[in-house]
Amino acid sequence: MSNGKMSSNVPADMINLRLILVSGKTKEFLFSPNDSASDIAKHVYDNWPMDWEEEQVSSPNILRLIYQGRFLHGNVTLGALKLPFGKTTVMHLVARETLPEPNSQGQRNREKTGESNCCVIL
């Protein structure tokens, strides 16, 4: 188990991500600058930590990374974010399976579904 010293052993050409779950649990993973947010989600899903068992998700497709308060698109690479090599960067990892209910996120969902609300008048 990591005692907090892992980040000093990060290879110079790699990026160490410390991922934080909503529950507050953390785990560190090493990635290449060419790895995308989708690659990271799949790797974490395939190597799900034992002590994250309660937070296990059904698919890597619902895992989302948040960096500096923004959701990362699946094709964004760590290199594109200009993250420092050989250092530890903190990101949040959340599961987003479905969109919020229309009544809780009113305006945004109305814009998306506005065109499908049609009627036939006879």
TrEMBL record:
Regarding the membrane, this protein is recorded as:
Lipid-anchor
Q: Which PANTHER family match?
A: UBIQUITIN-LIKE PROTEIN 3, UBIQUITIN-LIKE PROTEIN 3 HCG-1 PROTEIN
UniProt organism field = Saimiri boliviensis boliviensis
Task: Name the CDD domains on file.
Answer: Ubl_UBL3
Gene3D superfamilies, alphabetized: Phosphatidylinositol 3-kinase Catalytic Subunit, Chain A, domain 1
Q: What is the protein name for this chain?
A: Ubiquitin-like protein
Would I find Calcium among this entry's keywords? Answer: no
* Gene Ontology CC annotations of this record: plasma membrane
Source domain of life? Eukaryota
Question: What keywords does the record list, in alphabetical order?
Answer: Cell membrane, Lipoprotein, Membrane, Methylation, Palmitate, Prenylation
Every copy of the Ubiquitin-like domain together lies at 15-93
Compartments where found: Cell membrane
